[in-house]
Predict the structure.
Amino acid sequence: MKKQTKAAIFAVTIIALAGSVTLAADTKITVIPKPTQIKPSPGHFIVGQKTAIYAQSGCSDVENVAKYLSEQLRPATGLSLVVLEQSKAQVPADSFLVTTENSDSALGDEGYELLVTKTNVVLRAPKPAGLFYGVQTLRQLLPPQIESRKKVLGVDWTIPCVEITDKPRFEWRGSLLDCCRQFMTVPFVKRYIDLLAYHKMNRFHWHLTDDPGWRIEIKKYPKLTEISAWRNSGPGPLRSWDNPPKTDEIYGGYYTQDDIRDIVDYAKSRYVTVVPEIEMPGHSSSALVAYPELSCTGGPFKVQNTMGISDDVYCAGNEKTFEFLEDVLSEVVELFPSLYIHIGGDECPKKRWEKCPKCQARIKAEGLKDEHELQSYFVKRIEKVLLSKNRRLIGWDEILEGGLAPQATVQSWRGMKGAIEASQQGHDVVASPTSHCYFDYPYSKEQAASFPDWMSVLPTEKVYTFEPLPEDLTPAQQRHILGGEGNIWTEVAPQEQVDSRAYPRLTALAETLWSPKELRNWNDFSGRLQSHYKRLDVLGVDYYKEK
Ligand code: ACM
Ligand code: ZN
């Protein structure tokens, strides 16, 4: 206690010496994404032995956020901040109060207000998600060492006095992780989710099936994990189509249904929704290795061990394909509470369908114009399955070709054209154009020399200019833009390289999706990023160091 009192005096002295109280307090506030409104004032709140956390009584979600705050602060400070039920309207001295009472409903489902004074810290939000985001802000107001998982000595655990009012600009703030081309361990996936939450991102788009591997256990089709999850490639970046690996070493893995429930629960406790992606009709050849009867040719096939897109796709003329996918999706919706289920829909070559008697018979019977309309027929049938299970379909912008399924949401990746078209047709959109959101791409020209040639250069500064709302849309059409995603495809990004692909670019994306557009300022952001790096260092994030 004595030491902390001294620290308080010291902090006040520094502020006085700095000449400008506002500036001294303000310079400490480097939160990313930048809060909507920040009003600093002199002084600090000191977290010490006597500090307690009061949680609004009778609300388990609020109590859980209070416990989460206590757990976040415990390792570095060595303090066990007790969580107590709030019994009086008054906020006791030396305490945090976490509550949904008397908060401003205009802050919506994810906004919060935070008032830090010398005597206490009051965090209010209409909903528990807002409280959770308020805690992320608090973490970033404390010294960077707060992120240490071991006790740190000699640090004064102070929070600058400030009043913050904050809410997100977009409701969908996501990131895709491709766990097919590279398998990622369960702890790694959880850590990825944790870092998303730290930056107030709320969607984890989990790419679980693709040509080079099927990663989700489906009880009814055990061969998907016995066979489709494994390839002859060994670990490491994938080689190009015309230069296959010269090894038979088996590489792969899959997530059991227990693993998935564990990850989904973990994400839920961090207010992150896991959106699974089960690719169809293309990017599906790993499933065809195990079940070749679902293909147009009957196989046999091998799990693809290179980059590239397989010509072998689900046969759209075969009823068994739809039975299989309905069974798979039945298990998927049991595992994932997400309203949205991603069905891929991108890059489906039509070569096999053009030659397949069953696919051609389907085109004729359904009065379809061509193979693009056959793809649209496919997606519409799958949408009916999902709607019957009270879920909604989301797919890449190719699902616009041949006609959109009636209630589909479109993820625009080939630029913003798909976003514009879909929103003009009255459909919801998630924007992730390659130009600003493909974080598997190189940061610089120099780095590009060793990357596949389809990848353009994407420095963090360019990510920071990402604008999910196209100007030529009417306000009503703009309301269909739910938000955006930063995508980590993993052709050349094994697990140990994911951090440096994602960070710092994800911090820039987080700010474009959360903070008001008027506050966007690269110089200000890059200044805050320099301080933020210290936090990422303590968190053990192996971010890319841009020159
Ligand atoms: C994609 O990058 N093929 C969606
Ligand atoms: Zn076919």
Summary: The pocket of acetamide (ligand 1) is lined by residues 346-347, 396, 413 (CB under 6 Å). The first strand starts at residue 37 and ends at 46. The domain at 10-166 is CATH 3.30.379.10 (Chitobiase; domain 2). DSSP finds 20 helices and 19 strands in the chain.
